[in-house]
């Protein structure tokens, strides 16, 4: 697991962890106030609707996604991004295989078993 407050992370040293059918995440780096995570989706995979108290900023690194935030859905592709306010219900559907890069503030303690 990534070391807390380690300033550098090398992709090759980090493991993918399955989070659901066709979905896996890799925790890139984090500190108490922020966390960056790469999330890989197979075509057709769903990140089910959920909410959390964290602010989430996400970048579509690759692929195409239908992203729903608070009942509004947009189709996003590479280079597009979205912001999820605290406690907003949100989810995604991968229209093709792709990767999202998520940044959370504060960090997601539930992702590291704290």
From TrEMBL:
Q: Which Pfam families match?
A: Cupin_2
Q: Tell me the superkingdom of the source.
A: Bacteria
Where do the Cupin type-2 domain residues begin and end?
38-99
Q: Which PANTHER family match?
A: H2HPP ISOMERASE (PTHR40112:SF1)
User: What name appears for this protein in its UniProt entry?
Assistant: Cupin domain-containing protein
Q: Which organism is it from?
A: Plantimonas leprariae
